[in-house]
Design a protein that fits this description.
The complex is a heterodimer of chains A (261) and B (327). Chain A is of the alpha/beta class and 261 residues long. Chain A is 28% helix and 28% strand. Chain A contains 6 helices and 13 strands. In chain A, the strands form 2 sheets. A 9-stranded mixed β-sheet of chain A has the order 9-8-7-10-6-1-4-5-11, with helices on both faces. In chain A, strands 2-3 form a two-stranded antiparallel ribbon. Chain A is globular, with a radius of gyration of 21 Å. Chain B contains 7 helices and 17 strands. The relative contact order of chain B is 0.12. In chain B, the strands form 3 sheets. A 9-stranded mixed β-sheet of chain B has the order 9-8-7-10-6-1-4-5-11. Chain B is elongated. The chains are: A alpha/beta (261), B alpha/beta (327). Chains A and B meet through helix 4, strand 7, strand 8, strand 9 and strand 12 of A and helix 3, strand 7, strand 8, strand 9 and strand 12 of B. Strand 13 of chain A pairs parallel with strand 17 of chain B, so a sheet runs across the interface.
Chain lengths: 261, 327
């Protein structure tokens, strides 16, 4: 079966995030981008499916800083083909990305229709929409999100898919393929790949670049960001300072006073 | 009608969810500002009884059809698009819940209107929605606007649910729609959670670990502290994803909602999906190396420190206090 995995670069929130001088976006000067964590799970689920059923896994991402590293890493993990979409307007929102992807995917040779399109169920910067459902609408494909297991039946052109509900409950669904799935978690943690192997792949494999065709379609009115700032908390923890011993003693007092001990 | 605010009711397995009441509170504020009515939208099958719980709204628009028994992108999307075209509300508030996940996801495309995700607050300014949204895992807050009508995806905790419960029964209008056809994605069954060795919802003390715990072996440090309290270890999503703790120990959106006497968050950043499951704990203490971590906005007490330095010392302190209490 043929699986297309969409990978997106997002800011690494482990790093300090700074706001640009205009006060409306992140300052990109020192911004470190990494793969959207849920997309890493989507790739893992695709690789697990390939191991079971054979076929081809293609990873595709929009051009962005550090994206080549992410695509080469995906190839090193076992993806067969990597595609980078170029010539995009800067600062595309998730919603605009969905419509631009729907436009460009059919122009990528030997790609569509993929039996499954997998991507993360959401990203931390999905301000104006989530990619998987919007793309499913654009392509008129069935869609399920919060997916944590995919059992494919390629011969019957369907998949049995588990979706997460509260309290550890799962819903089991039957999804006809081709379909778009938003992955919450792969069945196994995303595999680790040594840097040496990624470097080897950089020498032996290439990333295909595909420019997006120009568009005049403005789409629905956009969400306008008036201000981006660190959250102004209405409440904040009372901070305890000192050596670990001092902090532990203070906490001990507080817990005893609160009747926890 | 222009100016009306809609709240899409979330219900799962026969019960309205807490967030539905939270949205009704926010919706009431917006309706007052917009000079319109607050209407709850109730979709499902055999759900008419649930309408009685939506008394905080001026009225309930109900569509009850067998095809709506389980939420699906296809069918719910079609029905909501029909209602929307017919009634033209000003703003539609939708809860960011697991049950409605697909519906919320496709609605911007189905309705062809702007969508604002991760909203924690909203108001009307000069006739237009102005919303506050949590981005980047809660590390940044965006103030945004969009020309109406607008679809707002609301996070859990935007308002207090209790203020959205009302005794009075609302007027219920059963709306006839063109039959929506069947969903391409077919619901088969629910698979119940596997019972874990420990029920974290019943614990008085939870020592909860996040990405900061770094390795599975390090969880032993949290376990020692939990043992000193007579409590249990729980975790946030990244720890469960790595397989370091079973799903039964997960706190947050897809895991458990917990209300222990003490929730000790160790190396947990405090993304909205996690906070949803623990913000009602009686006492929250957070230890994190990042002073900007959003967990400090929900914790009562915070320590900016390395959990590997604090946990062993705190374990000794708790053991000492428990021993002297027993003596």
């Amino acid at each position: 079966m043929n699986i297309l995995v969409l990978l997106k670069m997002v800011p690494d929130v482990i790093e300090e995030l700074e706001v640009a001088p205009d006060g409306k976006a992140l300052d990109t000067e020192f911004l470190r981008l990494i793969i959207n964590e849920r997309d890493a799970h989507a790739l893992e689920e695709a690789l697990l499916l390939k191991e079971k059923h054979g076929g081809q896994v293609t990873v595709l991402a929009l051009d962005a800083p550090e994206v080549d590293d992410t695509l080469f890493t995906a190839l090193a993990k076992g993806a067969d083909r990597a595609v980078k979409i170029t010539a995009l307007e800067p600062g595309l929102t998730t919603r605009a990305t969905a419509s631009r992807l729907a436009q460009v995917l059919p122009t990528v040779p030997n790609l569509c229709p993929a039996d499954l399109i997998l991507t993360g169920c959401q990203a931390i910067d999905d301000l104006d929409g989530m990619l998987a459902p919007l793309l499913a609408c654009e392509l008129d494909r069935p869609y399920l999100g919060l997916v944590s297991r995919v059992e494919a039946d390629p011969a019957a052109q369907k998949a049995t898919v588990l979706k997460e509900y509260p309290g550890g409950v799962h819903g089991e669904f039957e999804v006809p393929t081709p379909a778009v799935l938003g992955i919450q978690a792969a069945e196994k943690p995303p595999r680790y790949i040594p840097v040496a192997k990624v470097r080897a792949v950089m020498k032996s494999q290439t990333i295909e670049s595909v420019p997006v065709p120009p568009t005049a379609d403005a789409g629905p009115p956009a969400v306008e960001v008036l201000q981006l700032a660190k959250p102004e908390a209405t409440t904040h923890a009372e901070m305890l300072e000192g050596s670990p011993e001092e902090v532990a003693a203070k906490l001990g007092e507080i817990l005893a006073a609160r009747g926890v001990l | 009608m222009a100016g009306n605010i809609w709240v899409l009711a979330d219900h799962w397995r026969g019960q309205l969810s807490e967030i539905t009441y939270e949205l009704l509170v926010l919706g009431r504020e917006l309706a007052a500002e917009a000079g319109g009515s607050l209407q709850a939208i109730l979709l499902g099958h055999n759900v008419k009884d649930l309408a009685a719980g939506l008394g905080a709204a001026d009225s309930v628009l109900c569509v009850d059809l067998p095809e709506l028994a389980e939420p699906s992108a296809d069918v719910y999307g079609q029905v909501l698009a029909q209602l929307f075209q017919a009634k033209q509300p000003q703003t539609l508030l939708v809860p960011l819940t697991n049950a409605l996940w697909e519906v919320v996801g496709v609605l911007p495309a189905q309705l062809q209107i702007p969508f604002v995700n991760f909203c924690l607050d909203a108001k009307m300014v000069a006739g237009q929605i102005r919303a506050r949204c949590l981005l980047y895992g809660g590390k940044m807050e965006a103030t945004v606007t969009a020309p109406g009508p607008v679809l707002l995806g609301i996070l859990s905790g935007a308002r207090l649910a209790d203020q959205g419960r009302a005794e009075k029964a609302p007027a219920v209008e059963e709306v006839a729609v063109t039959p929506p056809g069947s969903s391409r994605v077919r619901f088969k069954q629910y698979i119940e959670a596997e019972a874990g060795d420990v029920d974290i919802t019943q614990q008085e003390v939870l020592v909860s670990v996040g990405r900061g715990i770094q390795t599975q072996d390090n969880i032993a440090l949290a376990q020692e502290l939990a043992d000193a309290f007579g409590g249990a270890v729980s975790g946030s999503r990244p720890v469960i994803d790595q397989g370091w703790l079973p799903l039964s120990r997960q706190v947050g959106k897809s895991g458990a909602s917990v209300k222990p006497k003490l929730y000790l968050a160790c190396g947990i950043s405090g993304a909205p999906e996690h906070v949803e499951g623990m913000r009602n704990a009686a006492l929250i203490v957070a230890v994190n190396t990042d002073p900007q971590a959003p967990i400090f906005n929900v914790a009562h007490y915070g320590v900016v420190a390395d959990i590997f330095e604090v946990l062993p010392v705190l374990t000794e302190e708790i053991r000492r206090r428990q021993a002297s209490r027993a003596a």
